[in-house]
Amino acid sequence: ARHDFGVFGAAKCRKGSSNFILKTKPTRGFRTALAQRLRTYVQEYRLSGRWGSELLPRKAQLIPLGESAIFRRRCIEEDRKTSVHLLVDVSGSMLSKDDQESSRGELACLSALSLALALEGIDGVKNLCSFFPGLNSELEVALKVDESATAKAAFFDQTPRGSTPLAQALWYALEQLVSLECQRNIVIVITDGIPDSVEKTRQVLEVYREAGVELYGIGIKQPFIEDLIKNSVVLNSAIQLEQCLFKLIDKIFRRFIAPSLA
Fold first, then answer.
1. In sequence order, which residues have a C-beta less than 8 Å from that of residue 131 and are 6 or more positions away?
2. What are the φ and ψ backbone dihedral angles of 118, each rounded to 5 degrees?
3. Is the Cβ–Cβ distance between 141 and 12 less than 8 Å?
4. Backbone angles phi, psi at 85, to 5 degrees
5. According to DSSP H, which parts of the chain are helical?
6. What is the pTM of this model?
7. What is the chain's pLDDT, residue by residue, as a tens digit (262 residues)?
């Protein structure tokens, strides 16, 4: 579609190369370091949401006898979780090769898989990934919240096609937040160009701001995303992948990272 009309359904991504995960091998060290930073963030973030009531020493002494009412007020522990939804542009312009390196589409898919693998298995983080447009729909899902990025790596290998229905993709990601039930929600848009409708994209971005959903962007060899999403970085080549993704992660999580890891 060349125009954005709002909410729509989503299909499932078709499987790409079964060896696609091997392309992330050069980023293994980066992903390990990134995962370390993320675990530190998650630990600090989740602990910051936990609190208890005043302990009653006399009753605490009776715990071996079965006493359970040991707090002046009932102890409440909030399990704070974070969702990270990757929205990846695979429109026709992603076929472009500005040099002898990977195409824009390959860079976008590799960026998404590298981030998803780094996020995988971190307690407290719900990880999702969707591509737009789909082959027969406005959007296709590569990774659901309960799935493993390692097991689904082949579905991150998507061939560019069609236009750029970013507004629909953003609406879809927003709809998912209801079922995720997370205290912090992050959407990362990976794109190389201008959406089909800048006006409607700006409208949904305003809804994101009002809802408190955090938006970040990765521009693939193009800086236009910075005009839509303030917190963005630009990836110009595969060589810059590690540096670019670290910069993005620092934008998202820096205030929770321990000084020794910053």
1. 13, 87, 88, 89, 90, 139, 140, 141, 142, 158
2. -70, -35
3. yes
4. -110, 120
5. 28-47, 57-60, 104-119, 166-180, 198-211, 225-228, 241-253
6. 0.82
7. 445 444 456 899 999 999 999 998 877 887 788 778 777 777 776 666 544 445 455 654 554 555 556 455 544 445 678 999 999 999 999 998 866 678 999 999 999 999 999 889 888 899 999 999 998 888 999 999 989 999 999 999 999 999 999 999 999 999 998 889 898 899 999 999 899 999 999 999 999 999 999 999 999 999 999 999 999 999 998 888 888 888 888 888 765 544 444 4
